[in-house]
Protein 1
Amino acid sequence: MSKTIHFTKMHGAGNDYIYVNTLLYSIPDPSAASIAWSKPHTGIGSDGLVLIGKPKDEEKADYAMRIFNADGSEAMMCGNASRCIAKYLYEKGITDKTTIRLETLSGVKILSLHLKAGKVESVTVDMLEPAFDVKEQFTGHTPDELNSVKALSDHVLRTEDGKPKSLFVSMGNPHYVIFVDDVQHMDITTLGKLLEREKAFPQRCNIEFAQLVGEGKLRTRVWERGSGITMACGTGACATAVAAAKLGVCGRHAVIAMDGGDLDITWSPNDNHVYMTGPAAFAFEGDIELPEDK
Ligand SMILES: N[C@@H](CCC[C@H](N)C(=O)O)C(=O)O
């Protein structure tokens, strides 16, 4: 296969990734490609790399997604990328389905496309169930590591009256959501950097800082594992809405207002699944060489 790769740059609420159709172009070392191409000056510039491909289980899924952060680490799930993949597949004429089953490292996610004048205006993703059980999520770690994750997930941060104001939530990938009084003026770079690598998180962690700004509306800023500050995080928005419902900050439906736009999240009481609805957009396309082998 060619060493020149055709890519599409897309974003979901400003969370931007480079998308490659691996049915046409193979990427032998996606981690190296993500590091090289995500760089703003010498690469394309992005929050990471997303590969669209064939699912391992073709009975259960139509397509598969792999997602690499800008530092080359592979993640189990990406909410914003799953919506972009729906738009990519439909608007490039690869599928005419308006319900797509997407295989990810954290299960098959159902994408429901909402069309307007033949274009994908928004997408709802069934993000499956959130998880809170530390043992379930951190296999292969020492009891000490598990205890320290447990301590943090047991709400180390508390308000003055002792109520918890932070929660560890897994949406297929790990999130630590902290409710704050003034999210706009916080130094989320310093805190995010520290918390991402806090020893309580053996797999590192995505960190969300959230503030209730209206009924069912949470202004949220994100420090993503492996990419730093991003304009939005789909799994992070889901984790924030779930944490807010669990801690009584708001009900089971919330609008998460991120730097790059709003995501609408419902944590269904019927099936315990989290449903995320939001936009997806094309930015530009191009061709790039694979990075040299080191
Ligand atoms: N931006 C994404 C999440 C990408 C992966 C994350 N940084 C991780 O390492 O888990 C989203 O929209 O969910």
Protein 2
Amino acid sequence: MTTRAGFVALIGEPNAGKSTLLNTMVGAKVSIVTHKVQTTRARIRGVAMEGDSQLVFVDTPGLFQPRRRLDRAMVAAAWGGAADADVIVLMIEAHRGVTAGVERILTQLAEIGKGRTVALAINKIDRVEAPVLLGLTKDLNERFEFVETFMISAEKGHGVETLRKWLAEQVPESPWLYPEDQIADLPMRMIAAEMTREKLTLRLHQELPYQLTVETEAWEERKDGSAKVDQIIYVSRDGHKGIVLGHKGETIKAVSKAAREELAEFLGRKVHLFLQVKVREKWLEEAERYDQMGLDFKDGNA
Ligand SMILES: Nc1nc2c(ncn2[C@@H]2O[C@H](COP(=O)(O)OP(=O)(O)OP(=O)(O)O)[C@@H](O)[C@H]2O)c(=O)[nH]1
């Protein structure tokens, strides 16, 4: 069997329908991903299987005219995700057409999208008549050389399967990036790992060994409705392990408690969180590419 796998970035103005499309393509589980945990790094929003292809959707915060510093960082992150992706899909709203925001994105796309596979998805086609769509398709394709144009309704599901099949053909031949039995809760695993990393950062301040990463090793749904989450904190040196554990394990206990509480509140149910610290000298090298993408590299999976 020839497998394929790759990264897909959905870009577009806020409200274009990116989350809706993701949910339709990936399944209901992603909807749990909210904007609550903000990060400037690209994150995985969901993974879809289509035939022998694995499509990993990376998050791109809505692209808008950045004013504040935080906004600028978010927009940069959005483009960062797109620049690393194998396929970029620009989503626009059919009834709004080429807005000033869309024009701005197209200008940036002229640089980022050069030589890449960029498709156009005109969304919310249920809101306009056919002639409008044809005019819009022509207009947009004159402004940028899209490899393909799709007319979809993310909400009603029209055209979504065609788009997904096409994406499956675009990603390169590659082993799958994530085991199939993990993809359903992958976004949750990543969010949980980020929560723990955030608590470590808060707790350790400057002491924090910068070569540190958190991975969610196992996620188990229990019959009583609670979730059992096992995480490993990887540090690159023995000395760092002591810092993370703290005097008599105080640091790790406090981090664990804070992360557990936040995760429980986020999920709205009870959480049992187990943290383990491991020394792995080479993790940085192994994980480099994934880390840059904001992905949690799982040992031995790639
Ligand atoms: N009529 C119609 N509405 C849609 C369609 N797809 C999405 N919407 C609606 O458009 C709104 C925005 O959709 P989202 O999926 O949240 O948009 P988004 O691009 O993820 O927005 P941000 O998270 O702000 O970047 C929601 O109210 C959706 O219900 C569609 O195909 N037709």
Protein 3
Amino acid sequence: MGLGALKTQGGKAGLPARRAALAILADILGEARPFDDALMRAHTNDFEPRDRAFVTALVQTSLRRKGECEAVLDRFMSKRLPRKSGKTSLILLLSAAQLLYLGGPPHAVIDLAVTLAREDRESRHFSALINAVLRKLVGVEALDKPHLDVPQWLWRRWVKTYGKKTAHDIARAHLKMAPLDITPKTDVEGWALRLGGIALPTGSVRVAERQGVIEALAGFDEGAWWVQDAAAALPVKLLGDVTGKTVLDICAAPGGKTAQLAAAGGCVTAIDQSVARMGRVQENLDRLQLKAELCVTNALDFPLGPLFDAVLLDAPCSATGTIRRHPELPYIKSEIQIAELTDLQARLLAYAARFVKPGGSLVYCTCSLEPEEGEQQVESFLAGHADFARQTLSPDEVGGAAQFITEGGDLRTLPSMNIGLDQGLDGFYAARLRRQ
Ligand SMILES: C[S@@+](CC[C@H](N)C(=O)[O-])C[C@H]1O[C@@H](n2cnc3c(N)ncnc32)[C@H](O)[C@@H]1O
């Protein structure tokens, strides 16, 4: 069904998009569903690309600015909504995000909000309140207090780990979508020029003006590059020159690091437990004309055989370093999940270590901002493995960026660290350990 049909069915222009946005927001905030799954469930594949982009912007802005929107809405609500108010709070949030941060004709925004409320049995009784509150919002200045957008449990953690100033900077970095970074197989400067981007000192290309779909960009079909955040491209570099070396890539899908290792001349064995995600690794490698041996298995069941010159473990984690791309994460993850993941990471790290040749390197990394999934994980591993030692990193290994290297000699990037075009990079942690 095209959007034209949806429009007729919905009656009002813009209503199907608002309906979809509301369903997606309810799925994320009510069911802890990831954004991409929720987007699919709302049948947005039937939408025109422009409308799909609008739905995405509406939902993502509501998530990025949730705390600020709610703080402004609170000013105009004399009492809290009762428990049985259906989707009223979500309709208010979506509409406030649009009025305060996205613009759009207030009359239409309010009218559609009231229509959405009337469509929901439990919100129907609140349509007059929605109308009244949103009218008061018109012309009100938006807040600029990004820390309000960080749920309390995460805010407390970041202040404790990084201090108030950096926690504020991280929160601000999360207000914007991440830029498009790519890793070219070769000729970084050339691809920067061709794609109208810049070559970052770390070896990635940051595309300045992203237009249209990624698949339509020059070099995609010929397999000249792949999409990979500048921070995600760093852990492989810590293994040094892998030409002709055997490398075990554990938790490999969707394969950004597998591609890097293969492109650098490593003899790569990549393992991941997800059949679907491994399918994407194979697709990517085919497009890039690169080779690696792929094995779908729980890493903890991978049989011990010949040892490897290098092992990379990109462990499953809370992914709080990627909130710029996934603004739903703070609302679908919890501290309990972090504790469960920490336990799995410890088991994976201890298991991965068994595959490293004496004299070989093990790089452990996660795209998390939480020290339990990074620094503390490596400390407790080293405390129990006398045959491994940390090999400290130097800024030259990461394009001269001294800000990425911790006092202890590990890699720690934050979304608030500016590296090009006034933008940051994903939050990543990595440590290099050497088997004696
Ligand atoms: C952070 S992602 C890896 C990203 C990947 N290294 C890259 O650069 O594209 C973590 C991966 O770990 C996989 N995974 C989680 N638990 C696993 C396990 N016990 N054994 C194997 N793979 C696992 C997930 O399927 C997921 O693909």
